[in-house]
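Quick one:
INPUT:
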């Protein structure tokens, strides 16, 4: 049995122990009072070794944990930002410290309540008063410093690559900003966003090999679109829409590599009473 198998077995034992104690290891709700960013912003001016009197409730994934005996440090990641959490003898109630040691592992999603303070070394932190398990993780996270090394595993387990690599996570955030800015740009100029069929009787609007499937109800061979509704958008112009655009996925059953996938996002717009020079100026 490998090391990871042993870790999984240990976590399965903790999962069962939680259930035996009547504790739900997969909770659907936790009342959060602050995000990690809220805490970093609101308490940015407190000094080293200064404690506030405010209670905060924050939740997220425990990315790593250092247990030094009388004190333990963890990093809580709420999906956007991180905050350090601290369990200290004499300041954290014993039930919370015992719960941490008995049931919690790196990778678990937890909720904590505590007070904000800044450590002697200047790290803004939450001194934990109570802790709740929200989701028990059965698999350990990838190694902290190196992440996922195998390229095949990195692409097949994209969620782990995103979780461990802030640059990859930020790339998808920027992608959302990019498409939204393009959408707002066109809408501001009178274009109407439309949605056209993904399944077509014949794949038109471009020259590429389509994916084919069978429509059972109609007993028809149909194809995933290879263009962003080109023929449909032209029909919408006939219907009386002078400016349309669509942002969506299209599919091509051809070669693929790291930069060319079988499905990808594309935008197409159509503009009545305008020629190619007008289109060039709009794009520029």
């Amino acid at each position: 049995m490998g090391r990871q198998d042993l870790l999984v077995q240990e976590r399965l034992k903790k999962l069962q122990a939680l259930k035996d104690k009547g504790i739900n290891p997969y909770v659907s709700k936790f009342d959060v009072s602050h995000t990690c960013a809220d805490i970093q912003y609101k308490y940015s001016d407190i000094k080293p070794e200064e404690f506030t009197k405010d209670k905060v409730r924050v939740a997220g994934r425990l990315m790593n944990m250092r247990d030094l005996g009388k004190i333990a440090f963890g990093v809580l990641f709420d999906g956007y930002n991180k905050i350090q959490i601290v369990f200290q003898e004499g300041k954290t109630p014993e039930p919370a410290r015992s719960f941490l040691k008995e049931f919690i592992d790196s990778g678990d999603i937890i909720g904590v309540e505590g007070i904000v303070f800044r450590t002697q070394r200047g790290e803004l932190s939450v001194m934990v008063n109570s802790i709740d398990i929200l989701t028990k993780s059965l698999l350990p996270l990838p190694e902290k410093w190196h992440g996922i090394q195998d390229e095949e595993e990195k692409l097949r387990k994209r969620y782990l690559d995103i979780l461990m690599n802030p640059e990859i996570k930020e790339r998808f955030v920027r992608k959302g900003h990019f498409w939204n800015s393009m959408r707002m740009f066109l809408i501001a100029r009178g274009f109407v966003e439309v949605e056209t069929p993904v399944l077509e009787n014949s794949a038109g609007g471009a020259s590429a090999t389509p994916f084919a499937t069978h429509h059972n109800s109609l007993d028809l061979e149909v194809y995933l679109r290879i263009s962003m509704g080109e023929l449909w958008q032209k029909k919408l112009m006939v219907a009386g829409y002078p400016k349309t655009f669509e942002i969506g996925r299209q599919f091509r059953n051809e070669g693929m590599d790291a930069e060319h996938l079988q499905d990808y996002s594309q935008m197409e717009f159509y503009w009545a009473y305008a020629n190619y020079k007008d289109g060039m100026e709009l794009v520029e």
